[in-house]
Write a structure and sequence with these properties.
Low-confidence stretches: 214-218, 224-228
Strand order of the largest sheet: 3-2-4-1-5-6
Strand content: 5-15%
Oligomer: single chain
Mean pLDDT: 92
Largest sheet: 6 strands, mixed
Structural class: alpha/beta
Order of helices and strands: EHHEHEHHHEHEE
Helix content: 25-40%
Shape: globular
Length: 228
């Protein structure tokens, strides 16, 4: 079957501000995120891509645009199923404030039990993301062969949930996975099992250094190293 490259969108203004963006409109890449997106074509220069699929949210479309500009013949598609989790009433709120919500402990320790107030459950988020991946795997293989490689540009929690599924991990363990903005995660799907060949690859090890107070971190509800 196909090989999938999952790209998390570049750093956004919500990441920098420590906000849980969700589907809030108008969340764009910040200066660093734009630079990360501009570097993406070079990072993928040696990889033949059959197609690119993106979340409909602006920060993902912005991240993918330099790659599309560099490869004008690359088929591009939008799929709402790989859009961000619907965080409902939590959308647009500061993560520092949400840390005091009783539900946040369940988000971290027992996410399969969580339904966001006015939003969707984390189980539903994972189910739609995995369904999208499986559908696109079949489509890409049918059109381009089993050795085809394609790309999806999505969001931190979505990518982590797809990785958990590929590894056979329960959703309650997906918070152990971390992907930085504009990182590449690669899963090779076969008829028997998926193989995770890259996880959160940025080509930059600076994120391993201790973070200073106020650093951008990873403003997804799953948090991670340096999360506000």
């Amino acid at each position: 079957m196909a090989t999938l490259i999952l790209v998390r969108h570049g750093r956004s203004t919500a990441n920098t501000a420590g906000l849980l963006a969700g589907w809030t409109p108008g969340v764009l890449l910040d200066e660093r995120g734009a630079a990360q997106a501009a570097a993406l074509p070079g990072r993928l220069a040696d990889v033949p891509l059959a197609a690119a699929v993106t979340s409909p949210l602006e920060r993902c479309r912005q991240t993918l645009q330099p790659l599309l500009d560099a490869r004008p013949g690359l088929p591009s598609h939008t799929d709402e199923r790989i859009g961000e989790c619907h965080y409902g009433d939590w959308s647009g709120r500061k993560l520092a404030e949400l840390s005091d919500e009783p539900l946040m402990a369940a988000v971290q320790q027992h996410p399969s039990s969580v339904t966001f107030p006015g939003g969707e459950s984390m189980r539903a988020m994972q189910a739609r993301a995995v369904e999208a991946v499986r559908d696109w795997n079949a489509r890409i293989e049918a059109e381009h062969g089993e050795d085809a490689v394609y790309l999806m540009c999505s969001h931190g929690d979505l990518i982590k949930s797809v990785v958990a599924d590929a590894l056979g991990l329960h959703l309650d363990l997906f918070q152990r996975i971390h992907v930085d903005p504009c990182s590449l995660t690669v899963i090779r799907y076969t008829g028997l099992r998926p193989f995770l060949t890259r996880l959160g690859d940025t080509g930059d090890l600076s994120s391993l250094a201790p973070r200073e107070s106020g650093d951008d971190g990873d403003a997804a509800v799953g948090g991670g190293a340096g999360a506000p």
